[in-house]
Write a structure and sequence with these properties.
This protein is mainly alpha-helical. It contains 6 helices and 2 strands; from the N terminus they run ααβαααβα. Helices cover 67% and strands 4% of the residues. A two-stranded antiparallel sheet has the order 1-2. Helix 2 packs across helix 4 and helix 5 packs across helix 6.
């Protein structure tokens, strides 16, 4: 059963404001991908953060809590929706600026620093309580995560192009 927050304070406001701002930004950006790819990127981000949080913050390791307690509450669920836009923006600008080779590596390094900044801001709003986790452990996790996002994006765009080519009539 989903619980209500112990108290409605800054972490709940952070989730609400982040949710609204990030999805408004997605809607305001010029359309870059077909709806199918956009949804796949967002759903992948949702699944990825759930699995990661389950492993790291779950009973197995209990490295940190999300929000007010270690119990699953409504704002934990809503909070999972604020992470997928980050991955969407990552691949959006990667595609827009057409990085290649070493540029992609530098892009991932830079976005990992942006992720650290976002995490630092979320810490200021008490989104996380660290037990056996250190803020600096997150950087290699973000490097891995963004590398996986890149591979997922390359895979789905390649598969989408193949599917489109199969649908074209041959004359």
């Amino acid at each position: 059963m989903l619980l209500l927050p112990e108290k409605f304070d800054q972490n709940e406001w952070f989730i609400i404001i982040s949710f609204i701002l990030t999805y408004l930004l997605i809607l305001k950006l010029p359309k870059r991908f077909p709806l199918t790819i956009t949804l796949l990127i967002l759903f992948f981000g949702m699944a990825y953060v759930q699995v990661t949080d389950h492993i790291l913050a779950g009973a197995s390791y209990n490295l940190y809590d999300i929000n007010d307690s270690g119990k699953f509450e409504w704002f934990d669920l809503i909070g999972w929706f604020i992470y997928p836009p980050f991955g969407y923006f990552f691949v959006y600008f990667l595609d827009k600026w057409s990085f290649r080779g070493l540029q992609i590596f530098l892009y991932i390094l830079g976005w990992s620093l942006i992720a650290m900044l976002v995490e630092w801001i979320s810490l200021k709003f008490n989104m996380f309580k660290y037990y056996h986790w250190n803020f600096f452990y997150s950087y290699p996790v973000y490097l891995l995560t963004l590398g996986i996002y890149l591979l997922f994006y390359l895979y789905i765009t390649s598969a989408f192009k193949k599917l489109k080519s199969l649908r074209k009539p041959v004359n």
